[in-house]
Amino acid sequence: MLVHICCAIDSHYFLRKLREDYPGERLVAFFYDPNIHPYSEYRLRLLEVERSCRQLGIELIEGPYDFESWMEAVRGLEKEPEKGRRCAVCFDRRFEVSAAKAAELGEKSFTSTLLTSPKKSLEQLRREGEKLAEKYGISFLAPDYRKASGTQEQNRLAKEAQLYRQDYCGCLYGLGIQREQQRKLADELFVPLSGQIQPESIEERIALYEERIRLEEAGIPYRIVKERFLNWRLEWALLKVGKESTPSHILPYSTLKKPFTRGRIDGEIAPLAFLNRDEVKFIGLSDYNRLAGTRYGTVSELLYAPPPFDKELELRRELIPSFYDLSPVIVVDKIPDRKIEFSMKAHSFEDVRERLIPLIER
């Protein structure tokens, strides 16, 4: 039996139930989810599915990440709600490829872990699956593992295995609609040009879950705990000195009350220089290098290969000891001596992140 996999939260429980109900079946897991966006989120979910399948001893096949084809398939349905027409097209596509893969492998049936998702319509999934099964001459199994406290058992197993629990279905449009309803920033879509890993970003989660696998392979016990913190994302910034655009690097947790300010440097307490408006502060690259222990030749070099986020945060705390100061701190090649125009849009917001703690016996 080929089992289409959407995520580890659903598959870990679903695969165990299939084993109980179909003990004679050889299960082949098939991860095919080109709807998941961004790609880093796709890699994170696949990482967890790989771990789950290893624990269960089930073969896993990864399907193609043909995201562009999926986008074309749902064109015009961007504003559809959850369980609407876009979801039907999405199921059709994933079920079509899964049914074709099952027939290619000589399997007689296929099913999908989407059936256990409480956010999906069981009847809609069953209808689409049976239609495609008939097309490929195989059967579609649609067990209802949500009933009889199945959803509660699924959540218990996920918690016990400390599985990554995503908080949106996966697609770009579903994410946008959900964050808009929550009045939250879709920070999953923020990836700096520099490649610097941001706090509570998908890239940070991938690093955490890869380290978790390393600890498991080494037999080291651990806990994953959650912590509430102040997060930050820079959307864009532009510095002009004497009307000329000037390379600048913005330190973490810099915010501006309004998107635009202008003024002149009216004082300096080394290594910081102060704009006469809106708490804006500047630091020259030579001082940045000295304090950060770096050797950048220009701010442009710094922009595309900055130090890790935490190291820059330490530098900010050295420059401004207060934990509560959100003033803009701007790194420049040299302190401006002409009229300054500065525009920036940044977001500081309450958030929750995970932390991996190895448990070492004393």
Summarize the structure.
This protein is an alpha/beta fold and 362 residues long.
C-alpha-based Rg, rounded: 25 Å
Give the count of structural domains. Answer: 2
* CATH homolog superfamily of the largest domain: HUPs
The fraction of residues in strands falls at 15-25%
The sequence of SSEs as H and E is EHEHEHHEHEHHHEEEEEEEHHHEE
CATH class of the largest domain: Alpha Beta
Secondary structure: number of strands: 14
Question: Topology, pairings included?
Answer:
Layout (H helix, E strand, L loop, with lengths): L1 E4 L2 H14 L6 E4 L7 H18 L2 E4 L4 H7 L11 H21 L3 E4 L9 H15 L2 E2 L9 H11 L11 H11 L19 H16 L4 E20 L2 E2 L3 E2 L9 E4 L1 E5 L2 E4 L5 E4 H8 L6 H6 L4 H11 L9 E4 L7 E19 L4
Parallel strand pairs: 1-2, 1-4, 2-3, 4-5, 12-13
Antiparallel strand pairs: 6-7, 6-14, 8-13, 9-14, 10-11, 11-12
Helix pairs in contact: 1-2, 1-6, 2-8, 4-5
